[in-house]
């Protein structure tokens, strides 16, 4: 009779339990991202930005409480799947039509900036004997579009999750310092506001940094700055395919399954969303500016949540042993880029 009672008890469904833990993991990354956004609204921290704030929170949480293994599946979903989804949505920020019709002249300078940033950062990294993966990611982030570029190329380069998160955090921090420095020195610089706008657009790290630095110079300067930056975002696509070809050649002959380079299908989504945003949204499909701003905010939130998932993989010992030399290489490159690009802007 006792055995019958015991056997009749309903045990929790493993599938239901795992689903709940998965949802808990995703919610956990959302919660830290939300805290990051809240902190970024505080005067002083607003220049730092939600991405950097959220990654810092994730790193501190990891050091104090350890990695939340129980909800790992949901955290990994954010770090992998949501990251690719964020890159696809990021395509809406790129207006291909504007770049083609108004920014072709800037594209030549954008190409030069990307090539300079990658090769100089990697070269300095070799001289400093820095971590090669981090150095390459930082060079790409510096040259193209910051954390979004790092997130896009990481799967192609088979970068480790902690390398991706460390690189994104460094880019956000250093880019913020540079954009604030630009606004401080702007009144003392020779040249017009439009020249300053072009300089900001071809040299600063992320779109948010360009917007921060360009706004004080006026709407025209801000517009040309963002246009120059969008050209660099556009070049993320051919760069990704070049890297994919390079990785395939690099891995040729090794024969191992894990050396195969997966096709970055999310970049196709990025291109399609760019085309949709450039030629359909706002034209065939009317949409208000507030709605576009909401989509942009949602994209930033999803990207931040994904970076939280990656940031939880970072240990402070990794930061000390791996990040210092790549940070020095990237900082030197950024300084050189600022000086040199001022004369070609």
TrEMBL record:
Identify its membrane topology class. Multi-pass membrane protein
What are the GO cellular component annotations?
A: plasma membrane
Write out the annotated subcellular location.
Cell membrane
Q: Which InterPro entries match?
A: UPF0324_pro
Task: Give the Pfam families listed for this entry.
Answer: Cons_hypoth698
Question: What domain of life?
Answer: Bacteria
Give TM segment ranges.
Answer: 21-42, 48-70, 106-127, 134-153, 165-184, 221-243, 263-282, 294-314, 326-344
Keyword list (alphabetical) reads: Cell membrane, Membrane, Transmembrane, Transmembrane helix
Under PANTHER family, the record lists: INNER MEMBRANE PROTEIN YEIH-RELATED, UPF0324 INNER MEMBRANE PROTEIN YEIH
For this chain, the family text in UniProt reads: Belongs to the UPF0324 family.
User: What is the recorded name of this protein?
Assistant: Sulfate exporter family transporter
